[in-house]
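User: Please fill in residues for this 414-position structure.
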């Protein structure tokens, strides 16, 4: 890599970006690398607890500068606004103006935000996003202003919508809560899991409106595709996820959700110096396990990108993305959840855990996955995962069948 230090820029300080930066710092200690972590907010956000933040609960928000203290990572507080893959630079807007950062390797870890394509969402709906005019915090303020008889609408029958509806209903039990979904509510993990979630929603007095597509959001409610108007004092939009558009604007191949298309080693299919991780990445070759936008996938891909860049710097072979999942838990309010085993291929099996046991289990894993970041800072390379042979097995299977391998879609957090 010549005389100069290798410049590695990590865009995005979520789970994927932070683990990538910390692991790289540890693994490239003798390799003369300069690592810069860029994030728009100056603190880390536990995104999966944003529905709790919206209810006024404290969630962990440590300063990113503190999370990387004592390592070789430089933290830059600013918003990335453009990438130029030709001359290998990133433009960042900071409090003091703008900066152009040159890079030898770029890790694209910008995560995702709630998708806002439906008319009126931007202007009128509240979102479980960490920043913006109608973010989780703004929702907290708005809910506190409502009268007990008001109606709250949550749009989205996936896990985010269910988690949001249950959390709000638990804190404002007197308000009418309606959950609107374009399909069936909670159908993302099979009928057993769905049954548990539907039971919980019924027990909590949440009204379901299934197979009802929202066409427009207004200040005072929503219009459905069949013309019906549903009045509501507040609409919370949980209708899917969208990745920021920087890669697309840079001319790199992305899918409909703006996820950067990557090869098995997590490199952009168009540019070998750009790696994508977490919610922002979509592998074009089937890794053998579904790529669900999730905290676990963010940690696995962040760690793998760090390992692969280190491998390039050491003239070693890179490893393909290959992993097994362990389990999933969906929060159903502060006192209920459903938890289940998904080892190894993200399909639920075995006994389902409910109520406080599932709540404690979910809390433990949320804590553990955050703790991995802190451990990685002290012991780089500590985070490990199972299922390293799944990619090769899947590719062999697909070759035997003669099937084209292009999922080009990472399923949203469900
Ligand atoms: C309400 C909710 C509940 C969820 N529950 C679960 C759950 O129970 N289990 C689970 O596994 N997953 C859950 N998820 C999904 C999970 O949070 C994400 O999959 C995970 O956070 C992805 O990590 P990431 O590092 O890829 O992205 P993020 O955590 O989104 O981090 C991306 C970072 O990039 C920063 N950024 C974005 N754009 C720019 C820019 N232009 N310049 C600089 N910085 C930028 C952002 O500020 C952010 O800090 C949930 C998500 C939500 C919203």
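Assistant: Residues filled in for all 414 positions:
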């Amino acid at each position: 890599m010549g005389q100069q230090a290798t410049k590695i820029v990590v865009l995005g300080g979520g789970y994927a970006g932070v683990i990538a930066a910390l692991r790289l710092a540890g693994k490239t200690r003798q390799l003369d690398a300069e690592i810069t972590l860029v994030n728009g907010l100056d603190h880390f956000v536990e995104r999966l607890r944003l529905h709790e933040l919206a209810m006024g609960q404290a969630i962990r928000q440590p300063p990113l500068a503190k999370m990387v203290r004592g390592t070789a990572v430089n933290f830059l507080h600013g918003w990335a606004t453009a990438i130029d893959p030709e001359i290998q630079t990133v433009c960042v807007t900071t409090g003091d103006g703008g900066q152009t950062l040159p890079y030898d390797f770029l890790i694209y870890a910008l995560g995702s935000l709630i998708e806002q394509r439906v008319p009126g969402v931007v202007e009128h709906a509240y979102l479980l996003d960490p920043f913006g005019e109608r973010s989780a915090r703004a929702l907290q303020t708005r809910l506190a202003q409502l009268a007990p008889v008001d109606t709250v609408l949550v749009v989205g029958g996936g896990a985010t919508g269910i988690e949001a509806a249950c959390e709000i209903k638990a804190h404002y039990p007197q308000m009418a809560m309606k959950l609107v979904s374009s399909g069936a509510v909670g159908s993302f993990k099979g009928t057993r899991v769905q049954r548990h979630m539907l039971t919980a929603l019924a027990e909590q007095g949440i009204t379901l409106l299934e197979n009802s597509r929202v066409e427009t959001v207004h200040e005072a409610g929503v219009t459905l595709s069949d013309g019906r108007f549903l009045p509501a004092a507040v609409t919370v939009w949980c209708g899917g996820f969208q990745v920021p558009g920087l890669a697309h604007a840079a001319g790199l191949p992305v899918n409909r959700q703006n996820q950067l298309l990557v090869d098995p080693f997590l490199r952009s299919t168009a540019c070998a110096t750009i790696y994508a991780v977490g919610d922002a990445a979509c592998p074009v070759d089937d890794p053998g396990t579904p790529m669900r936008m999730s905290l676990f996938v963010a940690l696995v891909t962040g760690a793998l990108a760090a390992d692969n860049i280190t491998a390039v710097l050491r003239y070693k072979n890179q490893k393909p993305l290959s992993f097994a999942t362990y389990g999933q838990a969906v929060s159903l309010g502060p006192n209920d959840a459903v938890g289940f085993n998904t080892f190894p291929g993200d399909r639920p099996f075995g006994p389902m855990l409910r109520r406080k046991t599932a709540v404690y289990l979910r809390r433990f894993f949320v804590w553990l996955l955050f703790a991995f970041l802190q451990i990685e800072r002290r012991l780089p390379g500590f985070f490990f995962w199972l299922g390293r042979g799944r990619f090769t097995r899947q590719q062999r299977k697909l070759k035997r069948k003669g099937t084209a391998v292009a999922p080009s879609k990472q399923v949203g957090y469900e």
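For context: The first strand starts at residue 6 and ends at 11.
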